[in-house]
Write a structure and sequence with these properties.
By secondary structure, this protein is of the alpha/beta class. It has one domain: Alpha/Beta hydrolase fold, catalytic domain (Rossmann fold, 3-Layer(aba) Sandwich), CATH 3.40.50. Helices cover 43% and strands 18% of the residues. Strands 1, 2, 3, 4, 5, 6, 7, 8 and 9 form a nine-stranded mixed beta sheet that branches. The two termini are 28 Å apart.
């Protein structure tokens, strides 16, 4: 794998670590969950033949240190970080953006706040659950996760969170569904993933999943937006917002290989689908 060019960018309250590969028009990849630039390295490498691909560690994760480790997080500030990277790497030229999960939420806000800088935004299963008809139920889930995290710790909170994300009716399944085997590169990042979980559950989940996007603005900009979801995840909570928004905006939902973490479990197939989506 080709070594990327790396750099740091000073933003409000943090210093971002970013990586750049390839040549051509800029494509910014915004990771989700506890992922950072390393989680997108294989995807970035494959896309670098067609694009200048930028990846980064979101503030508070990996090499992107916060000035104040206890600072509360917001979608708007994370989206502004992405905007600052666009300004640095593609000054004056609109760029393509891909965001997965919580990174997809940041990409949605980036599109609404700085639409002139985004040529196309592909967002894969952004868990903007407050747009759903049963938003009150998910607000209660977030409150239970937060209470458990503060009073019982990480793993009990994760158990509540995971139960809230599972497929509708999955609690009645006779046995757990088998989990896909992770590629070696993804399995090797398990330690980093675990290290980032307290920050993710304590700061990112409550801020991002309680976020309410500007739906009127998104609909007006929907020609620049591709809503995507996993082929294997219908019925899961993370799949539902993208499907709901696609219906609301009269757009086709783009289906990608795998489920919510298809980018991790099916990196080659996912990347090919992303490449095709960006070209159309």
């Amino acid at each position: 794998m080709t070594a990327p060019t790396t750099g740091t960018l000073r933003v409000n309250g943090a210093t971002l670590h970013y990586e750049v590969r390839g040549r051509g028009p800029l494509l910014l990849l915004i990771p989700g969950g506890t992922g950072g630039a390393a989680s997108l390295a294989e995807v970035a490498e494959d896309l670098a033949a067609a694009y200048t691909v930028a990846t980064y560690d979101p503030r508070g994760m990996g090499g992107s240190a916060l000035d104040d480790p206890e600072a509360e997080q917001s979608v708007a500030e994370h989206a502004d970080d992405a905007f600052r990277l666009l300004e640095l790497l593609s000054p004056g030229e609109p760029a393509r953006v891909f965001g997965a999960s919580s990174g997809g939420i940041a990409a949605l806000h980036l599109l609404t706040a700085h639409h002139g800088r985004v040529l196309r935004a592909v967002v894969h299963e952004p868990p903007v659950v407050m747009v759903l008809p049963d938003a009150a139920e998910h607000r209660r889930l977030l409150a239970r996760v937060d209470e458990s995290f503060r009073t019982e710790g990480l793993m009990p909170a994760m158990a509540i969170f995971a139960a809230g994300l599972r497929k509708e009716g999955a609690e009645d399944a006779p046995e757990p569904q088998p989990q896909p085997e992770l590629p070696p590169q993804a399995a090797a990042r398990t330690e980093q993933t675990m290290a980032g979980l307290p920050y993710f559950v304590g700061r990112i989940v409550p801020a991002f999943m309680s976020y309410v996007p500007d739906l009127a603005r998104l609909e007006a900009l929907s020609d620049h937006l591709v809503l995507a979801a996993g082929q294997d995840s219908p019925g899961e909570l993370t799949h539902r917002p993208a499907a709901h928004l696609a219906t609301r905006f009269g757009k086709e939902l783009a289906l990608f290989p795998g489920g919510h973490i298809g980018l991790t479990t099916h990196p080659k197939e996912f990347t090919e689908q992303l490449h095709q989506t960006l070209r159309t």
